[in-house]
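Attaching the record inline, Q. Sequence:
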Amino acid sequence: MKYKYLIIISFFYVCLANGQDAHFSQVDLASSFSNPAMSGLMNNPLKLTGVYRTQWAAIPSAFQTYGIGFEQKINNFSWGAKVLKSDAGEASLSLSSLTANVAYRQSLSKEGNALIGGVSIGGIQQRFDPQAFQFDNQYTQGIGFNSDLMSNENFTQTSKILPDVSVGLVWVNTLGKIKNELGISFLHLNQPAASFYENGKEIYPIRSNFYVKSTMPLNKRFSMNGQFRYSKQATAKMLVLGMGGEYKIDKEKVLKFGLANRKEDAFILSAGLGYKNMDFGISYDLQHSKLSGATNGNGAVELSAIFYFKKTKYNELAAKSKETNNESDPLRDDDKDGVPNGVDECPLIPGLWKYNGCNDKDGDGIYDSIDACPNLFGEKSNKGCPDHAIDSDMDGLLDNVDQCPFLKGLPEHKGCPDTDKDGVSDKFDQCPFLKGTIENNGCPKVRSTGVNEKDLVPNNYYPKVIVEFDSDQSLVKRYYYSKLDELVTVLKGNPDTNIYISGHTDTEGDAAYNYELGQRRCFEVLSYFVDHEISTDRINIVSYGEAKPVHTNKHVYGKAKNRRAEVQIVNFEF
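Structure, as predicted:
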């Protein structure tokens, strides 16, 4: 056959006969298009993805691909649907697909390790217009193409709808500060028939995808990532090596960039911006393949966007503040501290004008939202923390012999407090906020009633919840939301109960920093309860830093157990 648009037909042959699907360069933003299990990686409960790609600009009408995806996450389940369309323009060669996918996430450990499995089921519609092509038997020697001649090509149909099934698996884990993803997927598992001829044997071969991605934070604002991706479909292979980074401008804006090499094809340059509940990306494929001459050096341009319809916990807090502020009412004061929400840096907690609506509990002139040690009198040069070389907590014991150098304590307890006055030092008291007995490690004895302890609050005791954190991090993982929600239910159903939150760390870093890190962990847990309408009047926090380990700090597992916040409900007032 002789085709009018040889480049278009060649590309179509590569896509269908050799079975190489259209692909996207911004795999992170169009994740579920290559692996149905990746819909389970989303942090937000609801999102809409849109992506557009144009390539082969040298042909009369460029090859274009459009994709729209919807995903929703409900606890460990994720489900969604996606529409994909590829169009070769004037040749009227097009592919459309509509698929639904579901994924399930199985947690393997409290540190965030998990296995996610996904499946995608749907249909592919392929079609073309025979009138857009010129066949060899429509040519007359010495004259050329004669449109009056019949092509004598018999196609059983010019439009087909084919069933399509894909599966995928993703494993996520954390090694220290490095977060890793490893995924594999198999697309077109049922190998749909692709030929328009009655006896044609062309199929969509199974496309296997494999990828590894690692992300490492370098500091609080900047993180780097590296990735390896490999795909194979029939004789077509694709190998991508790349790296990228993210820079957090503030809580609402994140800049992203990346550079990758698709072997023997193109260098991929990408940039992006995360703003509030949106992500935008743009990439350009700089051709270096053997086909770069045919494309006149024109690469592929790709645009993508993600919209999150339900914000994260932190954005919800900010949104509540902004909503209560109401731009039409500039004097709205949600916490009723006399500081309007528009200028209040702590809009949910009553504070003082001179501290921009925040407090200064330790009286050191550094308000709590920027004070690294908000409960200890300190120096501005030390971020509000005291000079720990002397007696930080001013309890009469120098820091070098004080087992709780940042908590005012008693000499008989080696500088540690005994909050509940039961004779057991907080350092060794398993229930430091509940008066107990020495024989029971400081905890009260609870009579067995035959009822699950999680279903009631016997006397003044409720089982504490342990929230564990990554190294040097204070973000509360989604894994713990359900456990904290149980406490919220108890607090709302028992208005006389209150809550204590204690923050703890491993021994990495110095003691002063770890005390501040314990404070941050306390504040993050506190913000979760505030977000669920629990008054701060019912919440008290304390950081023990590294002073109260529950496991050895000599190995990774023990350190992971020590990086925690303990949440305890009691039914007496502070």
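The first helix runs from residue 6 to 16. Residues 6-310 form a domain with the Porin fold (CATH 2.40.160.60).

More tomorrow.
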